[in-house]
Amino acid sequence: MSADKKIKAIKKETEHSSLIVRWVIIVALTIVVSFTIFSIVIYSTVSQQSISQQKETSQKVVTNLDSRLNTIDSELQIANVVPALSPSTRDVLKSGANSVIRKPKDVSSAFSDDLLSSVTNPDVLVAVYNKHNEIVFSNGMGTPKLKKFKADTKFQKQTVKGKQILVTYSKVISSRSGKVTGYIVVLNKMTYYNKLMHNLLIWMLVISVAAIIIFTIIAFLVVRDVVDPINQISAVAREVNNDPNSEVRIQDLHRHDELEELAESFNSMLDRMQRYIVQQKEFVSDVSHELRTPVAVIEGHLNMLKRWGKEDPEILDESIDASIQEADRMKHLIQEMLDLTRAEQINVQYPNKTAVVSDILRRVTGDMQMVHPDFNVQLDMEDLPEETKIQIYQGHFEQLLVILIDNGIKYSTDLKQINVSAGLTQDKVRIIVQDFGEGISQEDQDKIFNRFYRVDKARTREKGGNGLGLSIAQKLVTSYHGEISVKSVLGQGSQFIMEFPVISKKEALRLEKLDQKQVHGDRNDTQM
């Protein structure tokens, strides 16, 4: 990496914002907004209910006064207002209408008077005005001012020295003449309301701040718990990206959730990628080795012919035959390599193909018997229902059988017989290809499906094998969700066992319809 690229990478990493920071900020803002809205709603609700109670208190005072003053027909005056008050109220009035009302000696009788209870409330200031805005009565603890108003009763909330007060204006209308005779003004200091709302505001601020801090810390811990595995995955990905051969993996997260599943899938992907890298190296090495030999043989014969061999008919024929043989081997090798590559793309090329097992078994065993008349190829399908179907392209199924039967023929010794049997095992079709040849050692049984692996390279070369047949077979079987295995005893022969899931008639019909749609789609694409 050049110096400029390193600088850009460092700059980019510096500009990278942490996912934890962003998530915590979002969570914190969400909590702040939520608690703000919640606090405003609660504060407004309590305020409205408390104001309603205060209005009821003020209205009760107005109602008590009005019930005694609306019986007066003429304009309100001190002379007619004071007599209209209740006896208990008159008793406590000492020096006219503007005197301070004190509690009477007889407390029980005083508090039985609603009006007296109202005007002696230290939180309530009462004033009665005549039509000329002159005070004719007050409870002596202050005189609320009269302001013009149109309705019969008006409530007005005011702020005085940072505190809320409620002023109620009401007209006194004579019950006999129906005319306005004066005005009642009640000022409610709302001491309880102001104290309640002040305490509520403080507690809400304290609770909101505490909740925001606590939930932000919880959010940080939760988000960090989620992001830490992501950071581990990212670190492993960067290291593997820098060194594809690195064997570093994500440690067990002990989470039992989607992140642990992601980490396990990521590790599996890295393991698979590692295997592909190893296989690629082995493949390139093996192919290079396999192609080098026939090319060297052909080159040697051509050089010999060029120097002196073309003058000798025997040498010429021998060189031409050897070159053709090696070229034929190269052709088979290339074809098998192409088959192996195609076997890795089955999900794309043949996703909906189906095959009737019994039909293909009969055809392939018959063809192999005809090609190798010196062998006895026997077929046993007693345990296999006639219409049993599996999800596989029939050409690939035929190729599998040919590979295994041909492999058995190559390694047969004195007893030239191949047994092919098929049957149902629970919900799977089991197909066994058995030979009675050399057999395979336990050590080699674990390797025979590897690419280019040959048990006896010298003898296999004589028989024309490249060591790719069983690799192709394994790839085909696994690509169609099947399994392939081998059982063998040295000197007694081998059994190659394939198992495929059986598909129901309904599933077979569905796959056939999908295959027809795919075929028509491919034809339309070709015509276009």
TrEMBL record:
GO MF annotation list: phosphorelay sensor kinase activity
A Pfam family annotated for this UniProt entry: ArlS_N
EC number in record: 2.7.13.3
Keywords: Kinase, Membrane, Phosphoprotein, Transferase, Transmembrane, Transmembrane helix, Two-component regulatory system
Gene3D superfamilies: 1.10.287.130, 6.10.340.10, Histidine kinase-like ATPase, C-terminal domain (3.30.565.10)
Positions of the Histidine kinase domain: 286-504
All residue ranges annotated as the HAMP domain in the record: 224-278
Intracellular or extracellular location(s): Membrane
Gene Ontology CC terms, in alphabetical order: membrane
Highest taxon, organism lineage: Bacteria
UniProt xrefs under InterPro entries: ArlS_N, HAMP_dom, HATPase_C_sf, HATPase_dom, His_kinase_dom, HisK_dim/P_dom, HisK_dim/P_sf, HssS/ArlS-like
Topology within the bilayer: Multi-pass membrane protein
PANTHER family (UniProt xref): SENSOR HISTIDINE KINASE ARSS, SENSOR HISTIDINE KINASE CPXA
Official protein name in the record: Signal transduction histidine-protein kinase ArlS
Organism: Lactobacillus pasteurii DSM 23907 = CRBIP 24.76
